[in-house]
Amino acid sequence: MNKYLIILSFAGLTLGLSQSNQVTFSHQDSDTPSGYITNNTTGISLAIRYDSDKGAGTSTMVRGVWKSSGGPSDDTDSEYSTLFNLTWNTQHGNSSGSSQFYSGEALTGETHVVNISASQLNAAISSNTSGRLFIHVKHGSTYDDDGYTGIGMDSQTETGGGATHSYLVIDKSGPTLGNIKGFKNPSSATEVSYFSSGSVSTSSMYINLYKIKFTVGSEDIAYGFIKWENISGGSTVNHNSGGSTVTLGSYTYAANVFSGKSSANNFT
Predict the structure, then answer these.
(1) What residues form DSSP beta bridges with 49?
(2) Nearest CA to 65 among 53, 77, 50?
(3) N or C, which end of the chain has less CB nearby within 10 Å?
């Protein structure tokens, strides 16, 4: 009986799935604040640096999900229900293209950039004007949440299912003026609702014009100014900031917006 020894040789076989050890996010425009998606956002880019070789048979994907608050309970396709369409330029020997799957080859240490357009982001956000858009990179069947950085993705996170979930804040609401405030005593910065008499609910006070009209009666305006205040924190900015000011008590205001106006005139 003859016996044969058969030797099988496989060249370039890679066991396991490639991963990225860093994903750097960036906005494609200069008008969107870090950490946000706004009406000015034209898209985002992801620079993915691979920590092992990726063959042409393994696809990199980017998935997302909108949440009003909190975050996904796990890193699964059912939680990250949106599969983004990606675009990329010619890089590292791979031709430019557009697909939900980036299947180009990548070598250890290489950084490959994929892009997500504003239309793709908006589709995931739907008609929501606020909330959070969570974004997750996936290689093959494995979600990779290591090393997310850039535009706030490293600091805006939630945990769930043993994974870290990074997000961008959605702000697609235009600024609104909820009420007009008058100063009863500027030296102590005491604010009162501006109304001719009595009190008024702040929810019923609004302006639908870009001008505020002041009708001066028998009394001249001693000091007039506009104060813009961030209601969720941050600094107060006075209209005409950097111009002449007046200090009343421990508070400083822009002094020359409506100051010194005489009676029987309208000012806008």
Answers:
(1) 22, 111
(2) 77
(3) N
